[in-house]
Amino acid sequence: MIMEMHKLNTLCTYYPLLSCGLNLRMSLRNQFEMEEVKGEFIDGCHVLLSVASLTSSSLFDNLLKSIRQYGTINLLSALTSEAVKSVLDNQNEEETWGSDALDILLETWNVILGEACADKSPMSADGALAASNLFKIIVESHLKAAADSAFEDSDDAEYFHVSVSKRDEQLALYALIARAAADTTIPFLEQLFSERFARLSQRDVENDPTRTLEELYWLLLITSHVLTDSGEGETLLIPEALQAGFTNVVEVAQHPVVTLSWVYNKFFKAMSRPRN
């Protein structure tokens, strides 16, 4: 009990700074103050990671509920969404606080979801909703960034100028968040891909498909990480979260993972056909 109170007190100490971080660019005018608060905000993110590492996922979420109307996972979701937006909005600037914060916050998700998986217990309904909303923001933000980079010169485009290992590590962490709410995120990915595939199929000579192709490329990347775990050189593995996340689906043909895979298979077949 004493340990739980200590964790709560620590979290409460940094809560105002973390909340301030949600509107960092709007709430501060002085550059010196902004840099100072950014550093403190990063410290607050480290606190979240430390607390998550020392407690169970359910206790982590309940810590904030004792003083607020929402759980700690909701705060983590809001902070992560802002960090994603900051990173993508400042790709051409010498801005590192968003990237540093995002790395820490994604690692916090990794710890929380790893705990939930180890306990063989699903995330709470509130936690799953927070994960679902966050994943949708992540995907929509990256799709916008991908589309905006479509016509940039290769030497200037920063969006895809990330090491493959760094990119895959980030996508793998995004995938963990998606699997925590697979019942909503898998259909969401299918909807997005189907819309863009249809747009690509219906294009005419006056509509440049470059933006759509960039979006499809990113959707292919994130979906491949969501649907499979790396087998370290062996056969790719189907994540347990996806196997257990649709227990109410009886017909294999109606399984969301199957229908999503069919959409991608249809896309690859269409792309492999010879064009006139």
Automatic annotation (TrEMBL):
| InterPro entries tied to this protein | XPO4/7-like
The terms describing its cellular component in GO are: cytoplasm; nuclear pore
Q: Which UniProt keywords apply?
A: Cytoplasm, Nucleus, Protein transport, Transport
Molecular function per GO: nuclear export signal receptor activity
Q: Where in the cell is it found?
A: Cytoplasm; Nucleus
Protein name according to UniProt: Exportin-1/Importin-beta-like domain-containing protein
Q: Name one GO biological process term.
A: protein export from nucleus
**The keyword Transit peptide is annotated on this UniProt entry:** no
- State the organism named in the record: Aegilops tauschii subsp. strangulata
Asked if the keyword Cell division belongs to this entry, the reply reads: no
Which ranges of the sequence are coiled-coil? none
- On the tree of life, the source organism's domain of life is Eukaryota
Q: Which family does it belong to?
A: Belongs to the exportin family.
